[in-house]
Amino acid sequence: MSKYYVECGPIRAIVVSASMEQASLEALDESLQNHLWIYDDPDLSNGDCRNHLMLEALVHLDPSIRVSEQGFDRSDARLFGTPEIIDRWHRLMTGMNRLFVAAGLPPRTMQAVAGGAGSMPHVVAHIPR
Question: pLDDT grade, residue 118 (50/70/90)?
Answer without folding.
Answer: very low
